[in-house]
Amino acid sequence: MVSDKNIFMAEAIKLAADNLLTGNGGPFGAVVVKDGKIVGRGSNSVTSTNDPTAHAEVNAIRDACRNLNTFQLDDCEIYTSCEPCPMCLGAIYWARPKKIYYACTKIDAANAGFDDSFIYEEINIPLSERSIPANQMMQTDALDVFKKWLEMENKIEY
């Protein structure tokens, strides 16, 4: 007996496989599911869009949010052909689905030439020692914007 979960994961994997044929990007696919229906689809389109953030999960989240007319994916599940990279994991947490299902691991991805372990390592290094230097500046000016945000009565919190 094939479960719905298998059907949804098979769709994510199919999107990854189809991407090999289209040449739109890397071999990654993802779907967002709500109430047993696919509400968002995405495949990697980094190279075709010249957008390093156009990973399958991010594209699926964007599609689902457009289709559901919301910026949060409450009560949704994400099925992805590979364990999410740090960027996608961050996007998933911001979208707030209730569960993630993945097929391949980050080790499988590394073996295929998609190694994001250096990003995990960089996160644990002090800012001043990272391979891309980060320098803080104009904090007071930026804090003023946060203060105005806190004072707004008509803001939409997320």
- Cα radius of gyration in angstroms: 18 Å
Distance between the first and last residues' Cα: 40 Å
Count of individual helical segments? 7
What is the helical fraction, as a range of percent? 40-55%
Q: Which runs of at least 5 residues are low in confidence (pLDDT < 50)?
A: none
Read across the widest sheet, the strand sequence of neighbours is 2-1-3-4
Question: Main sheet, how many strands, which sense, barrel?
Answer: 4 strands, mixed
Can you tell me the overall shape?
globular
Number of strands: 4
Mean pLDDT: 95
| Succession of helices and strands | HEEHHEHEHHH
Look at the helices and sheets and give the structural class.
alpha+beta
The fraction of residues in strands falls at 15-25%
Give a description of the structure.
There is one protein chain. The protein is α+β, with helices and mostly antiparallel strands. The chain has helices at about 5-20, 45-50, 55-70, 85-95, 105-110, 115-125, 140-150; strands at about 30-35, 35-45, 75-80, 100-105. It has a 4-stranded mixed beta sheet. Strand 1 and strand 2 (about 35-45) form a beta hairpin. The longest helix has 19 residues, at about 5-20. The termini are far apart.
